[in-house]
Design a protein that fits this description.
By secondary structure, this protein is α/β, with parallel strands linked by helices. Helices cover 32% and strands 26% of the residues.
Length: 605
């Protein structure tokens, strides 16, 4: 990669230059089109916006609104040859040599701008970082590409950049590879790479969507700190209105490639003018708005659908010269709970805490130790055929509906497949039941002949729900089932789940890291940390009176979708959550749960 024509020796994290009048970036009449099977269609239409120095501009909207295409057009990273800029200008202010129209630059000249004047943070850091190159090599090369620094000086600035984003033991991290870091740490590395050369504009495209709520809070606080220190202008692209309220100075709402509304964050949230903006804000889950559905859960616990007692799930790791087992992942350690008919138990916590592993054990997808009782029968004492019969009562809805649907099969056949596997009903009866299920989840029987790719994300998740209902289960495990959906689609799917529960009496094990969603759908909540439950109680007990420090931190990390209630700061951790991996014989200490009143259980060390 060639070096910039204006190579410089940056004081990488020196104070920001003084602000000047006028926008640092100005887009006028931008239209971007994409060529598909049906010909060309616009994905961004006649968009105009400006970005002031030191300002945070949030572009919000649902999937397909044109947010990310706008960012890719600014960076000249549109997928070729399918997408192109049809018209418009993208002017980057250059104080020394006049304005630059980015839309008119060739790739060679644009390469000098990227990273140096405009940088971008992508949604998924694991796919943005090269998995075969160390963190240090990737960061140092990005600095060398735009400066005339020596390798030793570039390395020193790389360490400074990692320290600036609060990565502990920054020097030793240079030798690590992306897979050795957590998602939050990988995103910090991406931010360090983006800000290492003090760009004028930072584009953050859904930078926190794939992160846990506490890591999201830390990353947002980090962006604010770095912006204050260096005066960087930020374009933040997101569909999370809580993040918009937390970060934005100004907001642009997009739909179907067009700007629907523009204004200050305070005006957009307090006085939205467009109907679509009002609908978007109304669909946002808010902590404190959940309504209890029963006065007492205890009365229904006598006839539990599922009982989990002292569940352990461990995975052995091989290492050393002879490949012997020398370490063990303690994924789940002594978890116990029960779920009643008509009840929703939410299992919450950050990535790696053991939520999904607990769900997989309950669904029979991983080996375990302990007792799992479904419908009064302990799975540990059953033969293969008996287990298969019991499994009919437990179904699962996964996070990514597209990945859990076979793209080669018609959706009607996918929904009918569980009936076929268990030998239930004739072919004609199965077809009738599937048609009834499609109508029940808000789809039409005519759509049974279509394939998964012909549906939107929300529709695909409805198909997954229909498939889970096919065997009329007593328990449905929803593992992050709405986290990948837009906020309005998420609200409709949650309403559907509640409606089906009222109609069929289904119990849910609802797994999520989104505390606002959990507060709006759950009856009881169990909080997991490092494979163990640290707090469990009714939804009101956990959210109104959290007793464990980890539960308090989870709730505090949820951004409030109201600019008037922005938190002053979110405390960051200077280290990662401890690893659940231990040497053989080093079992983690068992936490005891103490009843602090009315069945509210809290871990005591």
């Amino acid at each position: 990669m060639s070096k910039s024509a204006g190579n410089r020796r940056p004081g990488v994290f020196a104070p920001a230059a003084s602000t000047t009048a006028g926008p640092v970036l100005e887009i006028s009449g931008l239209t971007v089109s994409v060529r598909g099977e049906d010909g060309e269609r616009p994905v961004v239409s006649d968009l105009s916006l400006s970005l002031a120095r030191g300002e945070t501009l949030c572009i919000a909207g649902e999937s397909g609104s044109g947010k990310s295409m706008t960012a890719l057009a600014i960076m000249q990273l549109l997928p070729q040859p399918a997408a192109r800029i049809d018209s418009g200008t993208i002017r980057l202010r250059n104080m020394d040599r006049g304005d630059i129209d980015l839309a008119a630059l060739d790739e060679r000249r644009m390469r000098h701008i990227r990273g140096d004047r405009i940088a971008m943070i992508f949604q998924e850091p694991m796919t943005s970082l090269n998995p075969v190159l160390s963190i240090g090599r990737q960061l140092i090369e990005s600095i060398e590409a735009h400066t005339d620094l020596s390798r030793a000086e570039a390395r020193r600035h790389a360490i400074e950049a990692l320290k600036a984003v609060r990565i502990p033991e920054a020097e030793s991290r240079l030798k690590q590879y992306p897979h050795e870091l957590s998602g939050g740490m990988r995103q910090r590395v991406m931010i360090a790479m983006a800000l290492a050369l003090k760009p004028d504009v930072l584009i953050a495209d859904e930078p926190t969507t794939a992160l846990d709520v506490t890591v999201q809070g830390e990353v947002l606080e980090l962006l604010r700190d770095l912006q204050r220190e260096h005066g960087t202008s930020i374009i933040l692209i997101t569909h999370d209105m809580g993040v918009v309220a937390e970060m934005a100075d100004r907001v642009i709402i997009m739909r179907h490639g067009r700007m629907i509304e523009e204004g200050t964050a305070a005006d957009i949230f307090a006085r939205p003018q467009a109907d679509y903006t009002r609908e978007l804000l109304a669909a946002v889950p808010r902590i404190g708005t959940g309504v209890g559905r029963r006065k007492s859960v205890e009365a229904e616990m006598r006839g539990s659908v599922a009982v989990v007692n002292d569940l352990h799930v461990r995975f052995d790791l091989h290492g050393g010269f002879f490949g012997r087992v020398n370490r063990r992942v303690h994924a789940v350690e002594g978890v116990s709970f029960s779920i009643a008919p008509h009840e929703t138990l939410a299992l919450v916590g950050e990535s790696g805490c053991g939520k999904s592993t607990t769900a997989k054990a309950l669904a029979g997808l991983v080996p375990y130790q302990g007792d799992i009782v479904i419908g009064g029968r302990n799975l540990a004492g059953l033969g293969r055929d008996q287990r298969k019969a019991v499994r009919r009562d437990v179904q699962m809805i996964f996070q990514d509906p597209y990945a859990s649907l076979d793209p080669r099969m018609r959706v009607g056949d996918l929904v009918a497949e569980p009936l076929l596997i268990h030998g239930i009903a004739s072919k004609e009866e199965r077809s009738q039941r599937v048609a009834s299920l499609f109508e029940r989840v808000g789809l039409s029987a005519d759509q049974m002949e279509l394939y998964p790719h012909e549906f939107s994300g929300g529709q695909r998740q409805r198909i997954c729900i229909a498939r889970a209902l096919a065997l009329r289960p007593k328990l449905i495990i929803a593992d992050e089932s709405v986290s990948a959906l837009d906020v309005s689609v998420q609200a409709r799917v949650l309403d559907l789940l509640k409606e089906l529960q009222r109609e069929f009496g289904i119990a849910y094990l609802f797994i999520s890291h989104d505390m606002a969603v959990v507060e709006n759908i759950s009856d009881r909540v169990a909080v997991m940390y490092l494979g163990q439950i640290v707090e469990m109680g009714t939804r009101d007990q956990v959210f109104s009176n959290p007793r464990h420090p980890y539960t308090k931190r989870l709730i505090e990390a949820v951004p409030v979708p109201d600019p008037a209630k922005r938190r002053p700061r979110f405390a960051r951790l200077d280290q990662e959550i401890p690893s659940p991996t231990r040497n053989i014989g080093e079992d983690p200490p068992k936490l005891a749960l103490k009843d602090v009143g009315n069945g509210h259980l809290v871990a005591v060390s």
